[in-house]
Amino acid sequence: MSSGNQHVPEVQLKVADARQRDVGRGIARIDQKTMQKLGITAGDIIEIIGKRKTSAIAWPAYSEDQGREIIRIDGFTRKNAGVAINEYVIVRPAKVKDAISVTLAPVDMRLNVDEDFINFVKNRLMERTFTEGDTTLVMMLGHAIPFTVVKTRPHGIVRITHDTQVHIRSEPAPEIRGVPRTTYEDIG
């Protein structure tokens, strides 16, 4: 392990809305200069810190966004970071651990959960990263089903892998610490 006082590069960026095609993909678009400052490349995981901490996959900014010091993230990522458009977030390279287990709960519906369903959801979320309290979308039969990440082992930013045990509750979890319930209207 390296010494505890090494400096992790971080930048402050202004939040902008994601383009429609990026919604629900867990990505954040940042420009080339910012990536260089952070010492990351496209596809790396970044930590996004607003009122909460969350993570996203860094993707290259659109050409017209280069040099504007903005981060384009969708409504889910904004909610997960506790920020609104035009607010500022701190962005830094994330320390990601492979998840031993992740527990999900539907946001606003009851589900019939069986082995096939769990495997389906797990496959959809493979290689995505989460922190406890995040909301994530899973596309199912043309519908986007929102899930709340109730619990992760270990804590912090974790990635779902083939070895991760995924647990899915059949009904919505009670309020999670400091995370308001999401409705479809919030996401818009």
What percentage of residues falls in helices of 4 or more residues?
Answer: 10-25%
- The SSE order reads EEHEEEHEEEHEEEEEH
* Largest β sheet strand count, sense and barrel closure: 6 strands, mixed
> Which structural class best describes the helix and strand composition?
alpha/beta
Write the layout of secondary structure elements.
Elements: E1 11-17, E2 27-30, H1 32-38, E3 45-49, E4 53-60, E5 70-73, H2 75-81, E6 88-93, E7 96-98, E8 101-106, H3 115-125, E9 129-130, E10 135-140, E11 143-153, E12 157-159, E13 165-168, H4 184-187
Parallel strand pairs: 1-5, 2-4, 7-12, 8-13
Antiparallel strand pairs: 1-6, 3-4, 3-6, 8-11, 9-12, 10-11
Describe the protein in words.
- With 188 residues, this protein is α/β, with parallel strands linked by helices.
- It has two domains: 11-94, Beta Barrel (Barwin-like endoglucanases); 97-175, Vcp-like ATPase, Chain A, domain 2, CATH 3.10.330.10.
- It has helices spanning 32-38, 75-81, 115-125, 184-187, and strands spanning 11-17, 27-30, 45-49, 53-60, 70-73, 88-93, 96-98, 101-106, 129-130, 135-140, 143-153, 157-159, 165-168.
- A hairpin with a 2-residue loop joins strand 10 (135-140) and strand 11 (143-153).
- It is globular, with a radius of gyration of 16 Å.
- The N and C termini lie far apart (43 Å).
- The model is unreliable at 182-188 (pLDDT under 50).
